[in-house]
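Handout, page 2. Input:
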Amino acid sequence: MTAPHRLLPVFATAILASLTLSASTAHAADCAGANLLPALASVPTAKAVTLCLINGERASRGLLPLAEQPVLATAAQSYAQSMVSQRFFDHVSPGGQTIEDRLASYAASSGGGPTAENIAWGQGVLATPASIVRNWMSSASHRDNVLNADYAEVGVGVSVGSPTGGLPATAATYVTEFAGRGAAASQPVELRASASSLSPRPVGKRVSAKTKKQISKRCHKAARRVKASKKARTARYDRCMSKALRAAAR
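Output:
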């Protein structure tokens, strides 16, 4: 492959990142507190600001805003706190809990609509709502969740501290649980996992928590063997999880 062809994707990515940064900066100006660190006393504000920023991104593309949903919000907050207290950062908890487990009560009342999850954590200036949402918008899989027209409801969780044990005063961990209702609920959704997004597998045999945990460990091990960028290793983990969970659910 010639040099010009190698440079083109890099150039295009740089342009996309620049446009995303500009749009996110504009939305931050409309959401008071977007650039403040979420201290313990201001967690409710940080959650509200994060939702404001997400809906700002949607509005700029002509999409309807997401409505805050109590069950989703409770699940998101609980999971953010779990990642901080148990020192892990993954869509599958150390005990094998997945997004399907976390949102089981919501699914029962909504008719099993599509769901997805974004997670992130930051330290210092990277822990502000503006920085977290800006980074989600700079990642294709995370951005797809934020801008998915099928989603109508969301729950935002913010916990001070990080999965690595960072000082609570300067670190924060975020979780957003997205969900759709109505016509979208009847559409089968294939498992799609990434560093910050996960959608449910097609209906089939329930995979046990123990099996999920074993699959996650196996896929993490396979991804670590790849001598490539973090993004490439994450993509390998995604494919491994998707394939293995579909096979286990048959």
